[in-house]
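Internal tracking record. Fields below are filled automatically when a chain is submitted to the structure queue. Please do not edit lines marked as system-generated. If the sequence contains nonstandard residues, flag them in the REMARKS field before resubmitting.
Queue: standard
Priority: normal
Entity type: single polypeptide chain
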Amino acid sequence: MISERKILLILNPTAGAGRARAVVDEAVARLRAADFGVTVQATTSAGDASRLAAAAADRKSTRLNSSHVSESRMPSSA
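SYSTEM-GENERATED OUTPUT FOLLOWS
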């Protein structure tokens, strides 16, 4: 079954002297156990986290807007 609950984790692989990966791995395991679809994207340079978060928000906004448009075009059952 594909989960409708999705989450994006943005990882700075150098954070915590490299220990962030272990924290993210544990979070991924727990989220998947709770039936979340999890995507991890690692940063590679300054500003990546902001760009990744903005892109994810834009994708979500586009999906929500598309969903709303689709529903509004459905014929009414009057």
